[in-house]
Amino acid sequence: MSQTQQERKAETRARLLAAAAGLFADQGIDAVSVDAVAESAGRTSGAVYAHFGSKQGLLLALLDSWKDSVLTVLLAEVAVTKSPRGQLAAVWENLADTTNDDSGRWSLLEHELWLRAARDPEVADVIRVRNAEARRFSARQLAGWTTASNARPAAEPEQLAVLVKALLTGLAMQRHLEPGAVTDALAVQGLAALLGLPGDVAPSKPSTTKPTIRSNHTDEEPHHEH
Amino acid sequence: MSQTQQERKAETRARLLAAAAGLFADQGIDAVSVDAVAESAGRTSGAVYAHFGSKQGLLLALLDSWKDSVLTVLLAEVAVTKSPRGQLAAVWENLADTTNDDSGRWSLLEHELWLRAARDPEVADVIRVRNAEARRFSARQLAGWTTASNARPAAEPEQLAVLVKALLTGLAMQRHLEPGAVTDALAVQGLAALLGLPGDVAPSKPSTTKPTIRSNHTDEEPHHEH
DNA sequence: GTCTATATCCCGATAGAC
DNA sequence: GTCTATCGGGATATAGAC
Hints:
Two copies of one chain form a homodimer. Chain A is mainly α and 226 residues long. In chain A, 65% of the residues lie in helices and 0% in strands. The first copy, chain A, is built from ten helices and no strands. Mean pLDDT of chain A is 84; it is low at 201-226. The interface between A and B is large, with 50 and 50 residues. The structure holds a DNA duplex (18 and 18 nucleotides).
């Protein structure tokens, strides 16, 4: 059955965006030509310019289509686990799983966007808005965790979210460069320190929780390479 | 006094490197042409290829000329202050001072190099070695701070250095995008939480800390092969 | 809206004079 | 070692047919 013109137009636009997302993440934005994006989407470069006007327009449209997804989804899907430490571990492993190359591609693209934002005000505006939304969301999440357990967070939720994201981002960067230097346990430990989770900083007053630190949950063996 | 040929050669090399450093930091590596580097150094592109063979060779030579400086210098120069909190504040402010645009340029170039390292093994080797050295140095520094005060760091020195650098890097990124979102006080607070400095996380009972796990330092020579 | 063809520009690298 | 001139390639973006 044939499509209407509107359907084809919409599909072309969607295909171009999807192709751009994959290629940009894999090779970097500057390294990907408009022709390459179009070819990967089964179209030609003319379609790109008809839809987005320029390569920059394509990039901005791509960012706009990411308003809600990515990090928000990540935080939402781990909301099922109960213990704060388990939550932290889940967040970190989803973010920096070296076996899953998707996360590596995303973090690479995230950093390239940050770098571009530093020199391109148009991109900066979009990224800034997205960051602020994600921060508010994770602040709510963190507030819930810290009140559930009797924690002594290093700051109030909004600022705590900044600290947590900073640590996650920096750890993911170092793991990407030297996978052996950042173990899962270290990441959880650092996050727990920021949240002030009982068990590692204040063992004096364990009202209800059990302060076992290291004998508990899944401990994957960090695989070395070579 | 005229120069000898060797002197002129050395000066040309130095000028090319200096020009490349400035332009790369300002505009990004890919955005700077070889001609632009040469012109900024008062030479022509032929000089670049005579000295470095390619643009990539220029980049690697530039990285090599930065073996010791940058972060090591930064950590060393703040070693005078006494209180750990003062040290933390000094490190952070030197790293992320928004009024000083040098630090902004520096961190931008630093991130671009990280991004490039993720896709270019040659660059990755250099960055990895430099990171490892800086980590060892700051680990020693941190060990001194934490033992001087009665702190409960979140991890042993080498790993603590990873956490601290991660937090600093992530905070600097967020401050670059949203300067208002990251206050100096927040940064110091987060760092203090990682170091387990008394006064903010464990006001109750700073009892005996766990014994140092690793007191000897293995001086492994970073090997690089290609 | 999409394709083909092309205009225009700029980059990295090389060749050869000096 | 440095400069001038240039080649070859690939990029963004446009023009016009359909």
